[in-house]
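hey so i finally got around to running the thing on that chain from the lab meeting. sorry it took forever, my laptop kept dying and i had to restart like 3 times. anyway pasting the input first so we r on the same page abt which one it is
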Amino acid sequence: MSKSETTPTGVPGMSSPLGLVLGWAAATATVSYLFFQWLAVARERVLETHSTLIVLEQALSAAKDAETGQRGYLITHKDSYLQPYRQGLEAASERFKALRNLKTNDADQLARITSVEASWAAKVQEMDSTIDISRKQSIDAARAAVATDRGKTLMDQIRAIVSDIEQNEQSIRAKRILEVTSLTWRLLAFNLLTTLTGFAVLMYLLAGARNTAAELQAEVQNRISAEELANERAEQALTVRVMNRELVHRTKNLISVVQAIVRHQGKGTPEVDRYAAGLSNRLVSLGGTLDILIREQWTTVKLEDLLQSQLAHFAEELSNRVVVSAGPPVHFKVSEAQMLGLALHELGTNSAKYGALSVKEGRIDFHWTEEPALEGTTITISWIESGGPPVTEPERFGFGSRITGSLCARAVGGTAVSHYHRTGLEWVLTFNRSSLSAEVEADEAA
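ok and heres what got predicted. didnt touch it at all, straight out
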């Protein structure tokens, strides 16, 4: 391959995938930002309907206070009742005005508000009239005016219109709450889809780096000069190491972006909080496994290293309460290591929340054995908890149980079983290794 066919990084064919990763990150951030803006607008609309209902209730209450003051004055003819009467008039007028300002963009509700304002103006005129008659003529004349039931009829109209406005506003609020819920779940679905897409691109990028390294090695082997061969191999090895470090850096940055998006969206909604926390922790677990794969040149991963990376955040417990009885050397391929890493992370997290690591007296025994089989050997890995709270089998199993069960078993071609003893959880993973695959693993490890 000539220099003109090589990317600026010295590795052919890598600039295009890197551009895809950067474009994916930019598109994810842009669309998520737009979703957040839509959600903010939708939530403001819900708050506006809530404010409308509160102001409506306050307006009706103030109207009732004014009517009570009027009735009190007509019955007792004491001026002390005129103060709550005037306060009720002023408060009701202000509330009706505030109601109009809140619904300036809703023609239907605005028409109802106009109607209730007209009825309220007539009611105010009726109450002022009776008070004026009481002062200038007599209380009996005022009471006779009240006995016509005109005031009651106007108040009944006001209540009916207010009830109509309230029912319509309740309906509007229900629709807007549904809109907020729909946008929230769409954003979660988008985040999950972009996360999976991003990981697919990253895996493609890492695979491309590995293939490029193989191509460079094949090219070097065809060189004639021993000195040129040695120099080019050193240069190529350095280039691949630099690319791997750059890919790890970019991978962790993208994981951090996705975690930030998910954590931000989860605020204030318990179901979303739990979803966001679970997804964020599993992304961290994948990142830890990725570190080991890059360090081992993308070949195989030792079981001890995998356990250490997934339980690193239990530093004290790992030395004092997580007892590891090392068995014979066991190595895992890339796909096996990723899924087993997630399973160990799930077991550690569940133990810290509900199991042995949730109390000071609890401990975990982790060991593995290798026994002869018809073809190759049978490896058994055991995770045994004791000293923790009493254990009962859960009524329902979530995605975490699938990781420690069928998904992990499928990855290694074996079986994974969880025993819910009262004294503690026992998780056992069993799988076979043929003699041929063991030799390949030994060669890759070397």
